[in-house]
């Protein structure tokens, strides 16, 4: 009874403008979808694909990735014109709960961003259908699985103001990210234009540092914005920074080590590699000298 009362008292503080929008009445639907996603990509999907050949989805993936580029660009545009590129402050920005055109546009854009987080589940679904299970890492599943649930609370209570810097910046990074994925899906002949993948990961890490800094600055200044939400977002920035940093070290530092040895084909562990022909020639030369 106490938890029910606490839940209702919290929900009473939510933004009434979004109360009747799909999936916004309760977090239960979002939680259910996120859990279903994790179950499918980690268990049910691989089980269904076990005795099936991988699907060839190149055309679909090319279309999907470039549609996501357009969607991300639209999010950046609408976040920009409704506040972040016009009259929003990067130091402190309260939420406008009015029905003014800019305030409603910001709320609708935030809701659209929330829905897009579900669309991004297709990133993992394509891995399952193509049986690329090594791509379905813990980082990937956590990142995709937790985002709709996290964003739901922001849209429910603060669909505007300081917190939306996170989604504004994230949408910009996704323009670059899905452009890379789209070019990669075209085929191996595009690889010569895709040598900047490690810098894409580095950009994502910088993104999380900016989100962390932008969020936690409110701990040291007066601002009419719920600090609890900024701590929530800032902690996400820290979590994902560490996860992406670990991925970067394991992936690119290891590759750099391999590239160092592969770039010097005659060297292995400090020794000179000699071919069989060279050994035979050396052997004959020594025998000739001895005779």
Automatic annotation (TrEMBL):
Please state which protein family the record places this protein in. Belongs to the ELO family.
Tell me which GO cellular component terms the UniProt record holds.
Answer: endoplasmic reticulum membrane
Stored Pfam families: ELO (PF01151)
Q: What does the record give under GO molecular function?
A: fatty acid elongase activity
Q: What is its main location?
A: membrane
The UniProt record lists the EC number as 2.3.1.199
- In Swiss-Prot or TrEMBL terms, this protein is called Elongation of very long chain fatty acids protein
Q: Per its UniProt record, what InterPro entries does this chain match?
A: ELO_fam
Q: Name one GO biological process term.
A: very long-chain fatty acid biosynthetic process
Catalysed reaction per UniProt?
a very-long-chain acyl-CoA + malonyl-CoA + H(+) = a very-long-chain 3-oxoacyl-CoA + CO2 + CoA
Group of enzyme by EC:
transferase
Q: Where in the cell is it found?
A: Membrane
TM annotation in the entry = 21-41, 62-81, 111-129, 136-155, 167-187, 199-217, 229-248
Topology of the protein relative to the lipid bilayer:
Multi-pass membrane protein
Kindly state which keywords UniProt assigns to this record, in alphabetical order.
Answer: Fatty acid biosynthesis, Fatty acid metabolism, Lipid biosynthesis, Lipid metabolism, Membrane, Transferase, Transmembrane, Transmembrane helix
User: Does the record carry Transferase as a key word?
Assistant: yes
* UniProt gene name: 107369730
